[in-house]
Design a protein that fits this description.
Helix content of chain A: 25-40%
Strand order of the largest sheet of chain B: 2-3-6-7-9
Distance between the termini of chain B: 43 Å
Shape of chain B: globular
Number of strands of chain B: 9
Strand order of the largest sheet of chain A: 2-1-3-8-9
Strand content of chain A: 15-25%
Structural class of chain B: alpha/beta
Structural class of chain A: alpha+beta
Largest interface: A-B, 56 and 50 residues
Distance between the termini of chain A: 25 Å
Order of helices and strands of chain A: HHHEHEEHEHEHHEEEE
Order of helices and strands of chain B: EHEHHEEEHEHEHEEH
Oligomer: heterodimer
Helix content of chain B: 25-40%
Number of strands of chain A: 9
Chain lengths: 297, 204
């Protein structure tokens, strides 16, 4: 495979276009889920009204090419690259594209020096943007991007099982209790209706990384593990029975999906980690197979 | 849908009830984390320099019967004029430690944000005659359309998201979720959903 890999080129322009699409154009599966959710709500209720504003906003941002949400969040890049590409060069190109997108008002300047409070003005800083590189055996390059807002990031949480207060033991019944508890704790503060990325296992740091990685899955996909697929469906149904509703105003739609991944763990540890993604679920990708053409999705 | 125009009177604010939908117009001021910290720890605490004193007076005039918007917008500058590109609400609970003092000191009548606020803000709304108005989080393109003009900016040294922007807004669609009668919509939903959570946990 490596001998057939596409030749490295400068892909800054493709990354900039990826950022533009991600910030301004909500994926169709998420939009369809919001449309479907609205149909279940009582006409003229706060939930109906809120979903109406959300859908108008999605259409307007797309039409005008402006950010869906002013909090353009943490840019999280997942780069799968063929053998022969330099991650040093790719990182520079990503940073250039991020700074350019900030100058074009596609991203809000969001990188704040933690101790001084000073904003760097271009979204670049220590640990920003967040980039995960993975060399793979494919001949082409793929870059996936999540823009994850701060409000939703703040309601993410991690449980260490057993959790006596929750009555959550080290099994899927315990995982269920944690996830339901987290949906209730978040109320509307993560900008519901959101999507939950869940990781069972791993260490504390890996738990959050994997929980976010689950958010790369399309809403309609089915977990290959039948037990987890059943749990995802059950939690989607039960999460909505809490009737927290869009923005926490009450209603039938509190979440749009639950996606669960599993990592190995130490004998001593059993973490359940939850990453909450707001309804402004900005997730896009492109693949580059050579010949100057990037395919966006 | 009830129409509200800033400046707001105490009587019209006290007439609102949690659950009311309102359409707000007039000039509002953005303030989020750093701005609240500044207002409380420098201006209200009386540790202001002479430059701060001037801003303090301007803020007192702008916020008396006025509205604060918890928002860090995306802005664009064309020559010397600023324009709002995207401007949804940010999570309000982070300002809970400050907001009651800001309401009391400046005479603010409306706090606009998302996610609701806590007991201290609810008590301040009741005591001084103010309301919390909930905007739809993430609806930044729709809200930007409701902001035809940026009339000024203070504290731009805090960075674009944290600066205090003066915005002229037209027909901003909001819901009253904390009223001046001590009623919080958020507490109702939290309590009702807690009951449902207990039922689900008992059955499985």
């Amino acid at each position: 495979m490596p001998s057939q890999s596409i030749q490295p080129i400068d892909i800054t322009e493709y990354i900039l276009e990826l950022i533009r699409r991600t910030s301004t154009d909500l994926p169709s599966d998420v939009e369809a889920a919001l449309v479907q959710a609205r149909a279940t709500e009582t006409p003229d209720s706060p939930a109906d009204h809120t979903l109406g504003i959300i859908l108008t906003n999605v259409a307007l941002a797309r039409q005008k090419g402006t950010p869906i949400c002013q909090d353009t969040g943490t840019p999280i890049f997942y780069v799968d690259y063929p053998t022969g590409w330099s991650t040093i060069a790719l990182r520079q190109q990503i940073e250039t594209a991020v700074a350019t997108a900030t100058g074009q008002s596609l991203l809000r300047p969001n990188a704040v020096e933690t101790l001084s409070g000073k904003n760097t003005g271009n979204n670049l800083g220590t640990g920003l943007p967040s980039i995960y590189f993975q060399e793979w055996a494919e001949a082409y390059l793929r870059i996936r991007l999540l823009l994850k807002g701060g409000g939703s990031e703040n309601v993410g949480t991690q449980y260490s099982l057993p959790d006596t207060n929750l009555g959550a033991g080290r099994d899927l019944a315990g995982v269920r209790r944690c996830v339901l508890h987290s949906i209730h704790s978040a109320q509307g503060r993560g900008c519901s209706p959101g999507v939950l990325g869940v990781c069972i296992g791993g260490d504390r740091g890996q738990g959050y990384s994997e929980a976010k990685r689950q958010l790369l899955r399309p809403l309609s996909d089915r977990n290959p593990n039948p037990e987890l697929a059943a749990l995802e469906e059950r939690l989607l149904r039960e999460g909505n029975m809490l009737e927290i509703g869009p923005m926490g105003f009450g209603g039938k739609t509190s979440i749009l999906g639950v996606k669960i991944g599993v990592l190995h763990r130490l004998p001593a540890s059993y973490f359940v980690t939850i990453a909450y993604m707001c309804w402004a679920y900005r997730r896009r990708q492109f693949v580059y197979r050579g010949e100057g053409v990037a395919e966006y999705a | 849908m009830r129409e509200l125009h800033v400046p707001l009177s105490e009587a019209e604010v006290r007439a609102l009830r949690a659950g009311d939908m309102v359409s707000l117009s007039g000039t509002i001021i953005t303030a989020r984390d750093a701005a609240h910290k500044y207002m409380v720890e420098q201006l209200i605490a009386g540790r202001a320099t002479s430059a701060d004193a001037e801003l303090h007076a301007q803020l007192q005039a702008a916020l008396r019967n006025g509205a604060i918007f918890h928002c860090g917008p995306v802005m664009e500058q064309v020559s010397t004029q600023w324009r709002v590109v995207a401007a949804g609400p940010t999570t309000s609970s982070r300002e809970e430690d400050y907001e009651d003092q800001v309401i009391a000191h400046f005479g603010v009548r409306a706090i606009i944000g998302k996610g609701g606020m806590g007991e201290r803000t609810r008590a301040a709304c009741q005591k001084y005659g103010a309301v919390y108005l909930h905007a739809v989080g993430g609806a930044a393109a729709v809200l930007a359309r409701n902001i035809p003009e940026v009339t000024g900016v203070w504290k731009l040294d805090l960075g674009v998201p944290e600066a205090m922007w003066q915005l002229r807004v037209v027909n901003m669609q909001l819901m009253v979720t904390i009223d001046a009668h001590g009623h919080s919509w958020h507490e109702d939903i939290a309590a009702a959903s807690a009951d449902k959570l207990q039922q689900l946990l008992q059955n499985g």
